[in-house]
Design brief:
The chain is α/β, with parallel strands linked by helices. The chain has 16 helices and 8 strands. It has an 8-stranded parallel beta sheet with strand order 2-1-8-7-6-5-4-3. α5 packs across α6, α5 crosses α16 and α8 packs parallel to α9.
């Protein structure tokens, strides 16, 4: 039994942080589902930018959408939805087998909306309706402006993947937004089971310029451990247990940005040490294949986060404000996605013009 199967059997969902049309056409994603226990998928603008730039598989779709007179954003979302709805259909048996816990794919609202609450709410509803799949999450950043959009979208019944979370405190704020949306549904007499995951970005901590060398490749794991401990407490709190009694399911923690960025570190740094039941780890394709090839899964994470707190103390002693850095990482992450989105739109426009 390889490490992907062991991790799956431990109770952690393995999702792929990648999608391309070639992966769908050639059966690669279907093979990963069958052979590597992959039970879901995430995407972002960078992933689609790379996929469309490097393949001619999208050319016919680009021509079709361009001839239909679509705006540039409509054209790009049309391409994205074609891939993600096909992927959602591949994961539909997993979704049904697990009663809606697993088998999800994720689609991001336009990144430029990260700090625009009303437009994020409208975009989330529109994209969810266009996709028309029960196992598709809409990704909304957990920024200050994103939190009310998360609450409102959950209240509207839109499944949400909270993205761009970088700290325990940001995680808990997003968890509260989910809970408020569910509580409003209960008060309105609506079904309480609107699914959500809360995505903590890990690897960017360890390559942040302000991280002392002695803590590099330690702080990302410590942030995850601390967040996991807090998530476990929140899941078992009386407030959340009341929601479960009305039919809600816990919002699952998701470990994102789990590809190792430091070439000196283990290629499975954020996989082997972060196994935990009722969580998700979404990993790049190279990381998934490395896990299947030579992964070794350690004991599951515990709720005892004293080691993480000791790492945080060393962080403070080095003169780094952890929460200020988390805020900066969130802003930088949002800006990076905007840049990738702009590059994606430009790439599609260039191809559309050439194909005309």
């Amino acid at each position: 039994m390889n490490a992907t199967k062991r991790l799956h059997d431990m109770g952690q969902s393995l999702w792929l942080d990648n999608i391309t049309r070639d992966m769908l056409e050639k059966g690669t994603l279907a093979r990963y589902i069958a052979e590597h226990s992959v039970t879901g998928l995430t995407s972002n603008p960078t992933i689609f930018d790379n996929a469309i730039r490097k393949s001619s598989a999208y050319d016919a779709s680009i021509q079709r959408h361009a001839r239909a007179g679509r705006t540039k954003d409509e054209l790009v979302f049309g391409l994205i939805l074609e891939d993600l709805t096909r992927a959602a259909d591949l994961f539909r048996p997993v979704h049904e087998r697990t009663g809606g816990v697993d088998g999800w794919v994720s689609l991001e609202v336009a990144p430029a909306l990260a700090f625009d609450t009303p437009r994020t709410i409208a975009a989330a509803k529109s994209l969810s309706q266009r996709a028309a799949r029960p196992n598709l999450y809409i990704k909304i950043p957990g920024t200050k402006e994103g939190l009310p959009a998360i609450e409102e979208s959950i209240f509207a019944g839109v499944p949400i993947n909270v993205t761009l979370i970088f700290s325990r405190e940001q995680y808990l704020a997003a968890a509260d937004a989910w809970a408020r949306g569910i509580e409003r549904r209960i008060e309105a007499g609506l079904p309480a089971n609107v699914s959500s995951v809360n995505s903590l970005f890990i690897s960017r901590w360890d390559v942040a310029s302000k991280v002392p060398e002695s803590l590099r490749n330690r702080i990302g794991v410590a942030v995850t451990h601390s967040t996991y401990a807090a998530a476990r407490k929140r899941i078992s709190s009386p407030r959340w247990q009341r929601l479960y009694n009305f039919g809600a399911r816990p919002q699952r923690p998701l470990w994102a940005s789990t590809g190792t960025k430091d070439p000196k570190a283990s290629d499975l740094l954020y996989i082997e040490s972060l196994a935990a039941p009722y969580t998700v780890n979404t990993m790049p394709e190279a990381t998934l294949l490395a896990l299947a090839d030579h992964g070794r899964i350690g004991p599951p994470l515990s709720e005892d986060d004293r080691e993480a707190e000791a790492t945080f103390a060393a962080f403070r002693d080095a003169g780094v404000d952890r929460e200020a850095l988390a805020t900066q990482l969130q802003k930088d992450g949002a800006a990076a996605f905007v840049k990738s989105w702009d590059e994606l739109v430009a790439a599609v426009e260039t191809k559309a013009a050439a194909l005309r």
